[in-house]
Specification:
Layout (H helix, E strand, L loop, with lengths): L5 E5 L4 H12 L5 E4 L7 H6 L8 E4 L2 E4 L1 H11 L11 H27 L3 H26 L12 H7 L2 H11 L10 H12 L10 H20 L1
Parallel strand pairs: 1-2
Antiparallel strand pairs: 1-3, 3-4
Helix pairs in contact: 1-3, 4-5, 4-6, 7-9
Pfam families: GST_C, GST_N
Organism: Lithospermum erythrorhizon
InterPro entries: Glutathione-S-Trfase_C-like, Glutathione-S-Trfase_C_sf, Glutathione_S-Trfase, Glutathione_S-Trfase_N, GST_C, GST_C_Tau, Omega/Tau-like, Thioredoxin-like_sf
Length: 230
């Protein structure tokens, strides 16, 4: 498929953009990556996603598809001849979607709350739901993977993408707060999964370097602090 047929609007630090890029890589789809400038929205983005005005946006034959998990599902369904991303069994597919929604609605927001915590006690309190969520995800991994490398089995699947796209920001949270989230002793299955996930050819060039993300995090936190003072 010609590169001009598939474009992706996004920015390298965004875990949601990374989801779409992993899915495209898994399907071996060539695409043009249109980098959005940090802190601004291009005319093409506003035109392509007038409702939410957010990245990522997949442009396929100039038709826009928005929202990261919807994009992943679209890629899986349209390029059905490639490796399957969503489980084929309806129940397994429903379970994968359930946990992906949990990650977006509960777990990742709880991790972001750590950055806003002021003082040791507040930070400790903010960490509790993150660890509780990881314990739930550790148990889910055991049940869903059935002893294989990934949530998706032998290969990266939908739930792997949903969780794994956040690993860059997990490392930032660990470094900036001197904590360990994916712990080899507390969550051994997830710990091993993070290594296998990041080593996969479809992923390894997409997870941003921690130090580069830390600089982005500092900018975001400074903006949040300034907004809170106004």
């Amino acid at each position: 498929m010609a590169t001009s047929d598939v474009k992706l609007l996004g920015a390298w630090p965004s875990p949601y953009v990374i989801r779409a890029r992993i899915a495209l890589n898994l399907k071996s789809i060539k695409y043009e990556f249109l980098e959005e400038q940090f802190g601004s929205k291009s005319e093409l983005l506003l035109k392509s996603n007038p409702v939410h005005k957010k990245i990522p946006v997949l442009l396929h034959n100039d038709n826009p598809i928005c929202e990261s998990l919807i994009i992943v599902q679209y890629i899986d369904e349209f390029w059905s001849s490639g490796p399957q991303i969503l489980p084929s069994d309806p129940y397994d597919r429903a379970i994968a979607r359930f946990w992906a929604a949990y990650i977006d609605d509960k777990w990742f927001p709880s991790m972001r709350a750590i950055a806003a915590a002021q003082g040791d006690e507040a930070r400790k309190a903010a960490l509790e739901p993150v660890y509780e969520g990881l314990a739930l995800l550790e148990d889910a991994f055991k049940k869903i993977s059935i002893g294989k490398k990934f949530f998706g089995g032998d290969n990266i699947g939908y739930l792997d993408i949903a969780l794994g796209c956040n690993l860059g920001w997990v490392r930032v949270t660990e470094k900036m707060n001197n904590v360990k989230l994916f712990d080899e002793e507390k969550t051994p299955c997830l710990y091993k999964w993070t290594i296998d996930f990041c080593d996969d050819a479809a992923v390894k060039d997409l997870i941003p370097e921690t130090d580069k993300l830390v600089e982005v995090a500092k900018i975001i936190m400074a903006k949040m602090k300034a907004a809170a003072q106004n």
